[in-house]
Amino acid sequence: MLGLQAPNAVIDAKPDLQLISGAPGRSFSRATETLVFWVKFMRIAVFILSAYWLLIFVGTHLPAPALPALGTSDKLLHLAAFAGLAFLLAWAIPSGRWPLSRNLALAAAIAFGYAVLDELSQQFIPGRTCDPLDVAADTVGILIGLASYLAARGCIIRIGWARRLLLRNG
Asked: 72 phi and psi, to 5 degrees?
C-alpha cells in the first residue's frame, strides 16, 4: 500500500526514544532526568555563590567600628573568604564546553578582579583602608580555593568512576 494510510486511521504518535536520546539502550526519560539534575545542581551552585558573595561584600564594606572583634588576623579572614569564593566560582562555572584549565583561569580572574575592586572601594568607607597585603592574602586564598576545588572534583570523579565500575561488574 506504499505507506499510505486511510484518513481516519489512528496514527501512532509515540516517538522513537532511541532516536531522540541519540544512544542505543538509553531512554529519553533517563537523559531528561540527568539534564534536569544538572540544571538544578547548577542553580544551587549559583545560589550559594551569590549568597556567599553578598556576605563577603557586606562584610568588607561595613565601617570599621561596626565590625565585631574576631581576635584573628585580618589576613587569615581574607584568605578564608577568597578561598571560599574561588571554590564556589569554580563550581558554578559550567565545565562542559571548555577545558577545565580555562574554567579555573576564569574563576581565578573573576575572584582576583573582585579582590582588587574590593580593596580599592574600601578607601571610601569610614575606618577602612586599601591594603595591598589584603590583595596578596586574597590571592593566596584564591589559589587555595581552586586547589580545594580540584581535589574535591577529583574525589567526586573517582568515587563516581568506582561506583560505575562496581555497578557494571557487580
From this structure: -135, 165
